[in-house]
Design goal:
Number of strands: 19
Number of domains: 4
Number of helices: 23
């Protein structure tokens, strides 16, 4: 079961005095050493987002410092839905605009409601019918089953947000209420010059919301984040930057900032109290312990549940394709689907498939190992017809079929599932068909249209850290979370690579505990001596790629001529991770170095 929560952190003067100095000292020191472009007045100029990126690189201990000052931030059991977070942000912005432009009578009516619950119900009914429903209808969310849960989560978050608004309205004087004063203007891009210890910096940006605190009569800067979307501590820094910016633009009235964190977590209380899970025990057991891509796992649990309920033998009526970079556990998800359905898994690399007959041959070989074989049930179009037993077929790296994919259209047509070879026709009506790809764009549209795509997102450092932690636990070693996160980064946030790194780190430690302690010092030593990677897991080749972009954007062909590797290694090995790090961006001018990429090179 899922539970939505709203965690509110108030950044008042006392807390600001404690955490601001290291933030602004680091930022202004970096600007002095590496001046960015200047405005017309000759003052260094940055966007708030870029200032936050700089902080993440130049002040690596910042997270620990701020976390020590903030009690009650619990990162365990967070569920990260990037799409739901983006949708929540969009809807909050649209809601604020709605209330500012059209909501004066609505908010005044809400003020006279008897209690907070009535205010929330009233505000939600109006906001949903007049503003959010048209947005949902226009966005196509209702036509895409894969986005239902994303929109459901965003709706729950908006309701939580309205609950917070209702509380604030409860402290407002109804006789002197003004919606435009309660929701201050944040639709315009703001810019101004802030000062710190005699240095000046031109900042530009647009906060999520600025609201009036009815109790203090002073405005507050509000920022919103969703789950694991960015680091909490860095988001706090963003709030502080906006406080200084707004004081520069609108006058010194802004003393307090607020960070609203929308969290969706498994409802552990209900589960531990014996309340029945929304999924059967068999389904939960099949996916137990899988870390990351919670949205994809939940979708698979739903599909497996429906298959078990609606068909015997259990068969998914739709085909599913996992899409995303390598190392995200696509094969493991296929194994867990097979386990949930209680069926054998036939794992077929598409690189071994030349045509329909070679695919049937691979399937037959796997069935024979399991003591199974298809049953002859007559003929079709003069060919022997074979009916295959219930099974799960997983076609990995399916993009390798490329143009030959059209030969498999009948097999992956959900209503047919017939593989027509040269001598036999395979009937797979009792089979569940899965596929995986890193590059769906290489497949023809008719083939893709036969699948429901499940997009997998890259792991966070914290998720990879959780995956590699058992490597040390099995040896009775206790290690710090920061060590595991550092190891995850040096493994390029790829679980497979990170596990290999963890095992190698442990081997070196068992060989010489003093030379290779299980801490940052030991990690730095092995990274330099053996792995030849920096703290981000970047190799010399990655740095060479980044340096090639220092003079400006370059196209892929230019990069191929500059680097000692083939085009495929650039597009499949180097660029995906650099994009994940936000060290580069893909623009109409070509590959471009970002601020984060520049800072990585400067370190």
């Amino acid at each position: 079961m899922l539970k939505s929560q709203l965690l509110s952190l108030e950044l008042g003067p006392e807390l600001r005095a404690h955490i601001e100095p290291p933030i602004f000292d680091a930022l202004f020191s970096h600007v002095a050493k590496h001046p960015p472009a200047k405005n017309k007045r000759g003052v260094p100029s940055l966007t708030v987002s870029r200032a936050k990126q700089i902080l993440e690189i130049v002040l690596p201990c910042y997270r620990e410092r701020v976390a020590a000052s903030l009690d009650g931030i619990n990162r365990s059991n967070f569920v990260s839905f990037k799409e739901a977070g983006l949708l929540t942000h969009q809807w909050i912005h649209e809601s604020v605009k709605f209330f500012r432009r059209e909501g004066a009578p609505i908010l005044r009516e809400a003020l006279v409601k008897d209690n907070e619950e009535q205010r929330v119900d009233y505000l939600w009914s109006i906001l949903f019918s007049r503003r959010l429903l048209p947005l949902i209808q226009g966005s196509g969310l209702l036509r895409d089953p894969q986005k239902f849960e994303c929109s459901d989560l965003a709706v729950e978050c908006i309701k939580l947000w309205l609950g917070d608004i209702a509380k604030k309205l409860g402290s407002v004087d109804a006789d002197h209420f003004s919606p435009s004063a309660f929701f201050l203007d944040t639709e315009s891009y703001m810019e101004g010059e802030i000062e710190w210890k005699g240095q000046r910096l031109h900042l530009r940006g647009k906060p999520d919301a600025v609201m009036l605190n009815g109790e203090t009569g002073r405005p507050e800067v509000w920022e919103y984040k969703f789950g694991l979307q960015g680091q909490i501590e860095l988001q706090i820094a963003q709030v502080l930057f906006y406080l200084h910016l707004l004081n520069a633009v609108k006058g010194p009235a802004f003393e307090t900032g607020r960070l609203e964190i929308f969290r969706v977590t498994p409802d552990l209380e209900k589960e531990s109290s014996g309340t029945q899970s929304e999924f059967a025990e068999k389904i939960e057991a099949a996916f137990a312990g899988y870390i990351g891509n919670y949205a994809a796992v939940r979708r698979l649990k739903i599909e497996c549940t429906l298959a078990l309920k609606q068909s015997n033998p259990p068969t998914m009526p739709i085909n599913l394709m996992f899409s995303g970079p390598g190392g995200l556990g696509k094969t493991e998800l296929a194994r867990r689907v097979a386990k949930a359905l209680g069926l054998p898994l036939v794992d077929v690399p598409a690189t071994t498939v030349r045509d329909v007959d070679s695919l049937l041959e691979r399937i037959n070989q796997t069935l024979q190992k399991n003591g199974q074989e298809p049953i002859e049930v007559g003929t079709e179009s003069g060919l022997k017809k074979l009916e295959y037993p219930p099974l799960v077929i997983f076609l990995d790296e399916v993009h390798e079929l490329r143009r030959n994919a059209d030969a498999f259209l009948n097999m992956f047509e959900p209503k047919e599932k017939r593989a027509v070879g040269k001598k036999v026709v395979g009937d797979f009506k009792n089979a569940t068909l899965l596929a995986a790809t890193t590059t769906p764009g290489l497949l023809p549209s008719p083939f893709l249209s036969r699948f429901r795509i499940i997009d997998l997102v890259p792991y966070t450092a914290e998720e990879v850290a959780a995956i590699i932690k058992p490597v040390f636990q099995k040896s009775g070693k206790t290690v710090e979370e920061s060590f595991l996160v550092g190891l995850a980064k040096r493994g390029r946030l790829n679980p497979r690579v990170a596990i290999q790194r963890a095992e190698e780190m442990l081997s070196h430690h068992l060989f010489d505990e003093k030379q290779y302690p299980l801490n940052e010092m030991g990690l730095e030593r092995i990274s330099t001596e053996s792995w030849r990677v920096d703290t981000h897991g970047l190799r010399q080749l990655d740095h060479t790629y980044l340096k090639a972009l220092q003079s400006g954007p370059r196209g892929l062909s230019a990069l191929v001529s500059l680097l000692p590797v083939e085009r495929e290694e650039i597009t499949q090995m180097i660029e995906p991770y650099l994009l994940q790090l936000e060290a580069i961006s893909l623009t109409t001018k070509g590959r471009e170095l970002t601020e984060r990429g520049r800072l990585i090179l400067e370190k």
